[in-house]
Design brief:
Blueprint: E1 5-8, H1 12-21, E2 25-28, H2 34-39, E3 47-50, E4 60-63, E5 66-70, H3 75-80, H4 82-87, H5 89-96, H6 101-106, H7 109-115, H8 122-129, E6 132-135, E7 139-141, H9 142-145, E8 146-148, E9 151-152, E10 160-166, E11 170-177, E12 184-193, E13 196-202, E14 209-210, H10 212-220, H11 245-262
Parallel strand pairs: 1-3, 2-3
Antiparallel strand pairs: 4-5, 5-10, 6-7, 6-10, 8-9, 11-12, 12-13, 13-14
């Protein structure tokens, strides 16, 4: 680990001022990705600005037809929230599947989506539910927020502040986890929303994506059988030591059918 200046922000304004004054600063939410990166000397920021002290970025509220979750809310709190379990049980279930207890008690919603690991779970929930991301600079739909592998619409120094999740009629998340990391080899989030059916896939490609053919089939008949013959080409899918692109293509169908069957 290279030497750096550690700075703990007490407010959003404090965090942004610290970032602007740093030669090469970086924000830290839960540190689940940043700390291993620093330990392996894959990054050498001049300043690490810790967001853990900003209480305004934590919390879960239900506002009308939306569940609003602060960016610094940890996965364990989302999983255990009675409000989330009642309004969007699929979201609470997804949060309960992330990593292990240590990761769930440190990792945060905002840190996860800002990092946009292709195998992360939360991007599937955001796109699957048609969520809205609020930042210090703008408000953007989940469909537009995730732009590529480890890439988002966040500008330099911009922070996620909260995410607004529309409450669906029904939804479910199913994933095939890596047995060691619990990251998704392939995950499928299926939701029936007031604006229509949404099917979001994570883990399979460079970033989360929707499957329009499945959405159309499920609009006509919301059953697992309706998508049984729909396949996703393997051409642009990820391939690594955990699974080939072809295997991931097969898992998309399997996980999507399981999610449809599990919808409640």
């Amino acid at each position: 680990m290279y030497a750096f200046e550690y700075r703990k922000a007490a407010s959003l304004d404090d965090a942004q001022k610290a970032f602007e004054s740093a030669d090469d600063g970086t924000y830290m939410a839960g540190g689940m990705t940043l700390i291993p990166t620093l330990k392996q000397r894959l990054a050498s920021p001049s300043d690490v600005i810790d967001l853990d002290g900003i209480d305004d970025l934590r919390g879960i509220t239900v506002d009308g037809d939306n569940v609003i979750i602060g960016a610094m809310t940890c996965h364990a709190d989302v999983a255990a929230s009675a409000d989330v379990q009642k309004a969007i049980p699929a979201l609470a279930h997804l949060a309960s599947l992330i990593g292990d207890p240590q990761v769930r008690n440190r990792g945060t919603l905002g840190g996860s989506i800002a990092n946009n690991d292709p195998a992360a779970d939360y991007p599937g929930a955001l796109v699957g539910l048609g969520a809205t991301v609020h930042t210090t600079n703008k408000t953007v739909s989940a469909d537009e927020f995730f732009t590529g592998m480890f890439e988002t619409t966040l500008d330099e120094g911009e922070l996620v502040t909260k995410v607004s999740f529309p409450i669906p009629e029904k939804a479910a998340y199913q994933k095939f986890p890596n047995p060691a990391s619990r990251y998704s080899v392939v995950g499928a989030f299926v939701a029936k929303t007031k604006d229509g059916i949404r099917v979001a896939i994570t883990g399979a490609g460079p970033t989360v994506f929707r499957v329009p053919e499945m959405e159309q089939a499920l609009t006509a008949a919301f059953t697992a059988d309706a998508i049984a013959d729909i396949s996703v080409p393997a051409d642009d899918l990820n391939a690594d030591l955990h699974a080939s692109a072809e295997y991931r293509a097969h898992l998309i169908g399997v996980m999507a059918k399981r999610a449809v069957a599990d919808c409640s």
